[in-house]
Amino acid sequence: xxxxIQIWWRDDDATEASPALSxxxxxxxxxxxxxxxxxxxxxxxKSLVAVTQEPNVDILVHGFAHINHAAPGERKTEFTLERDLxxxxxxxxxxxxxxxxxxPQTLAVFVPPWNRFxxxxxxxxxxxxxxxxxxxxxxxxxxxxxxxxxxNMHIDVIDWRSGAAAKPVDGLKAELAALIAQSKSAxxxxxxxxTHHLQMPEHAFAALEEFFHSVAQSQDVVWTRARSVxxxxxxx
Length: 236
Ligand SMILES: [Zn+2]
Fold this sequence. Notes:
The strands form 2 sheets. Strands 1, 2, 3, 4, 5, 6, 7, 10 and 11 form a 9-stranded parallel β-sheet that branches. The chain has helices at residues 19-31, 47-51, 85-102, 122-127, 169-185, 202-217, 226-229, and strands at residues 5-14, 35-39, 57-61, 106-110, 132-133, 149-150, 155-156, 158-159, 165-166, 191-195, 221-223. By secondary structure, it is α/β, with parallel strands linked by helices. It contains 7 helices and 11 strands. The radius of gyration is 17 Å and the shape is globular. The longest helix has 18 residues, at 85-102. The termini are far apart. Strand 8 (158-159) and strand 9 (165-166) form a beta hairpin. Zinc ion is lined by residues 12-13, 62, 66, 113.
């Protein structure tokens, strides 16, 4: 029997405790699924401390302030090659430091806002002590730099092109099945599931639960957590 393919869950844009975040964490507990919260360092509030104190919650660094610095007409991105390099370096390192002082369990894994980050800056991430980056899409399209692990998301519960509507659960299951088939022929790391708790329409929460139900019944996939995906040892 072949080994099951790993799947992990990343939720973006957390800054504070909120009803939507509580709802997501309830679902996490109900289905016993590990979650990684990508938290925005410059906007992170103390209220996150209490709500993230439970097993199987990993914290990732979601940009610095989640501000768009793209040139007019360009796609949104916080980090660009045109920005002052000293300022970029400062944001990358102080973002990690700030989040670690608030949430010591933070992993040195960078999640670029809007899933965009210039490959010309990957080296800077490695230099500022990040061990990995998580964005969107096939990892092969990202050039690894300085020993950084690249572990992306591949399934999004929201259909952004249809006005941020919830995808039907059958669609999510079909995406998973296609990714499983792909992984079997060319295994290149775990499958990533992406959510945005603050922007999920009502239907998306239900679809997520149904999706978790089908993963629980599958022999092909097994949940893993960011700490394992990025091979970060447990704290002593
Ligand atoms: Zn974001």
